[in-house]
């Protein structure tokens, strides 16, 4: 075990133990918790765990599709070692109680460090006021106790970041692969949050608590059919489904539906090279039932109509968007924390650099 | 032959020549040649940067090759040091950009990958990763070249590049976090890559925290962090 140091003196493990069992254990625990080596150790452990999780893909949420994809990936990568690695908990490190405990410990250490920093800064400011109360403004700024300010700001940023992660973990959620079509407004289950897509799928609006990211856009259609008398024919997407007068279909993959009264089956295929787009063309094929004979086919760009034996199938373009919706109640807090952390650490790096160089120069003459 | 390959090929040759000159000057004890080596190294770095820009513009090289060239370009930047560099480390530091550029050229010429410029849009994450890897490689390179200073504890001249690199990386990763938060609503949006960068940054931060108490541990942790940054950039 490494040595802890107190006021520049090396302290052995046994001394730490004796400190813990001394008359004022709280004070000693405070010293150990605010020691840089303790925080450094926790940071190394968290860093190592983060690096470990990049080699061992972490088990995802209970969504069966995502889980199946993850299982296929780990089996491809690790083969017969999967059960061993799984029992060692390497696929659940980031959600393990151990990892969370380390994060909580780090949070606790940073809290004490912030309190200590504020106290030191208060003393530093009293001295600064005494020495520079009559100085010029620029001198006062130049002599501000930056070496005490920036570490405290950075520590506070780190603490707020952990707090933000905790709040997000407790009350935040993420929904991947949400498909929405033009003109729709979806209220997300069990919440008041909503997402809406404009008719042309160009603009997304959402409730204030959500962040929405478009993963993919593609073509989609609103379909209805009529015979030569103009009466509406019912459409059915699967054998057990209730027939309906119109269907709204996002064309992520091929889609099929039947027009039972006209003995027709319609196949819709998005046609695109590379990434699909909202304006990608659609191949429409109509087959007779039960012969399976191709009755008509055409490529649609936008709205259109396909007619077979007096049966008209009308298509209105309704593009879709596949979204990732995130509700992070601590977004503002985390943003503030990152700015504090980055500003504090960058400032601290410059202060430490200046301080150490001058100390070393003084030592070496 | 594309201009990117010409620039990077020239840079590779110049770095190799600089390494040869460094060895020769050591054998002949001609320390004045070090200045020439430094100039050649800078020119090689500029050529590499031109090669990277050209490759990005024309889409001549694979993304990995571009990253390798960018890291090599950053490694070629001059590294401040008080005393004359430790020769084996210095030669190694000259060979590192040579080997990175050579590997990038080999990959480009072997695969013949040509990505149309309009299809290869450089995302912020790509630039950030290559930049972090480059900074890590530059610092590691400098530390190796000035190893005796670190051993003797007279490492004050290393503090400026170290602090500058750390501050820059902190700002880079912080910016990425802010962008992720605004765009995706969460700090982690790039999965494995961002975890690697964050892990490396945490190890570096730990190294900074122990700098006054355990100087050796300080340098070891920073060297590990640099290696993780390089590894993350090359994956």
Average pLDDT of chain B, rounded to a whole number, is 79
Helix content of chain B: over 70%
Q: In sequence order, what are the helices and strands of chain A, one letter per element?
A: EEHHHHHHHHEEEEEEEEEEEEEEEH
Work out the radius of gyration of chain A: 32 Å
Termini separation of chain A comes to 35 Å
Tell me the domain tally of chain A. 2
- Low-pLDDT parts of chain A are 1-9
The overall average pLDDT of chain A, rounded, is 84
Specify Rg of chain B, calculated over alpha carbons. Answer: 18 Å
Global geometry of chain A: elongated
The DSSP helix count of chain A reads 9
Spell the H/E element sequence of chain B.
HHHHHHHHH
How many domain regions of chain B? 2
Shape of chain B: flat
Beginning-to-end CA distance, first to last residue of chain B: 27 Å
Which structural class fits the helix and strand makeup of chain B? mainly alpha
The share of residues in extended strands of chain A comes to: 25-35%
Number of helices of chain B: 9
Short description:
The complex is a heterodimer of chains A (365) and B (235). By secondary structure, chain A is of the alpha+beta class.
């Amino acid at each position: 075990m490494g040595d802890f140091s107190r006021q520049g003196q090396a302290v052995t493990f046994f001394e730490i133990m004796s400190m813990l069992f001394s008359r004022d254990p709280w004070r000693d625990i405070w010293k150990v918790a605010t020691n840089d080596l303790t925080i450094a150790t926790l940071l190394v452990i968290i860093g190592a765990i983060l690096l470990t999780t990049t080699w061992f893909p972490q088990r995802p949420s209970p969504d069966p599709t995502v889980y199946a994809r993850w299982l296929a990936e780990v089996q491809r990568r690790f083969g017969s070692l999967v059960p061993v690695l799984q029992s060692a908990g390497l696929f659940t490190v980031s959600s393990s109680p151990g990892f969370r405990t380390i994060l909580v410990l780090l949070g606790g250490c940073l809290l004490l460090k912030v309190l200590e920093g504020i106290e030191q800064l208060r003393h530093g400011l009293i001295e600064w006021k005494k020495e520079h109360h009559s100085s010029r403004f620029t001198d006062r700024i130049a002599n501000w106790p930056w070496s005490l300010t920036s570490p405290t700001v950075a520590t506070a940023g780190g603490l707020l970041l952990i707090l933000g992660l905790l709040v997000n973990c407790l009350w935040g959620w993420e929904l991947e692969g949400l498909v929405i079509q033009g003109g729709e407004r979806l209220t997300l289950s069990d919440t008041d949050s909503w997402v809406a897509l404009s008719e042309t799928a160009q603009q997304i609006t959402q409730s204030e608590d959500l962040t929405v990211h478009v993963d993919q856009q593609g073509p989609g259609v609103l379909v209805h059919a009529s015979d030569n008398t103009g009466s509406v024919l019912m459409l059915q997407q699967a054998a057990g489904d209730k027939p309906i007068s119109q269907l709204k279909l996002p064309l992520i993959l091929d889609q099929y539906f039947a027009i039972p009264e006209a003995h027709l089956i319609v196949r819709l295929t998005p046609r695109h090279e590379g990434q699909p787009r909202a304006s990608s063309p659609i191949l429409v094929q109509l087959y007779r039932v039960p012969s399976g004979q191709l009755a008509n086919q055409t490529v649609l760009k936008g709205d259109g109509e396909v007619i077979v034996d007096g049966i008209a199938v009308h298509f209105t373009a309704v593009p879709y968007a596949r979204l990732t919706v995130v509700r992070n109640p601590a977004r503002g807090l985390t943003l503030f924390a990152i700015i504090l952390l980055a500003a504090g650490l960058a400032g601290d790096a410059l202060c430490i650099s200046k301080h150490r160089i001058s100390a070393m120069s003084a030592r070496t003459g | 032959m594309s201009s990117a390959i010409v620039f990077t090929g020239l840079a590779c040759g110049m770095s190799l020549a600089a390494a040869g000159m460094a060895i020769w000057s050591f054998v002949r004890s001609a320390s004045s040649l070090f200045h020439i080596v430094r100039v050649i190294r800078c020119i090689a770095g500029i050529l590499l940067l031109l090669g990277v820009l050209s490759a990005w513009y024309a889409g001549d090289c694979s993304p990995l090759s571009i990253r390798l060239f960018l890291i090599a370009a950053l490694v070629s930047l001059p590294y401040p040091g008080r005393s004359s560099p430790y020769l084996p480390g210095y030669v190694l530091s000259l060979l590192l950009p040579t080997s990175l550029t050579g590997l990038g050229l080999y990959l480009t010429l072997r695969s013949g990958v040509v990505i149309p410029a309009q299809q290869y849009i450089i995302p912020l994450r790509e630039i950030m990763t290559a930049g972090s890897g480059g900074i890590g490689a530059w610092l590691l390179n400098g530390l190796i070249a000035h190893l005796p200073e670190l051993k003797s504890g007279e490492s004050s001249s290393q503090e400026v590049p170290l602090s500058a690199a750390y501050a820059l990386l902190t700002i880079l990763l912080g910016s990425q976090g802010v962008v992720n938060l605004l765009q995706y609503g969460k700090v982690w949006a790039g999965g494995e890559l961002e975890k690697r960068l964050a892990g490396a940054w945490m190890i570096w931060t730990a190294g900074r925290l122990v700098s006054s108490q355990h100087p050796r541990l300080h340098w070891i942790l920073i060297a590990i962090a640099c290696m993780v940054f390089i590894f993350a950039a090359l994956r």
